[in-house]
Amino acid sequence: MLGVRITRDRENRTVYLDQEQYLNTTLDKYGITKEKHKAKKIPAADYEHLRPASETDERIDSTEYSQIIGS
Question: Are 4 and 20 in contact (CB under 8 A)?
């Protein structure tokens, strides 16, 4: 299986699966491991904060957020 580490314990007849390497690679890709806390802008989670856009508003790239969540 790609991206999955398989550890077999023959004596106890068990198999362990983990994705530690995949997780570390994904966190490095988005720069999450470089700092203790890295703020990520997210789309509005509820209707309470919705309002018409103004000229000074900063646009959020929703595709990056989707990629992080999907990973």
Answer: no
Q: pLDDT per residue over 24-65, tens digit each?
A: 888 888 877 776 666 666 666 677 777 787 888 777 777 877
CA distances from residue 18 to 27, 33, 69 in whole angstroms, order as listed: 16, 19, 19
Q: Which residues of 17-54 are buried (b: 16+ CB within 10 A; e: fewer)?
A: eeeeeeeeebeeeeeeeeeeeeeeeeeeeeeeeeeeee
The answer to whether the predicted template modeling score (pTM) of the entire model surpasses 0.70 is no
Return the closest-CA partner of residue 23 out of 45, 49, 4: 4
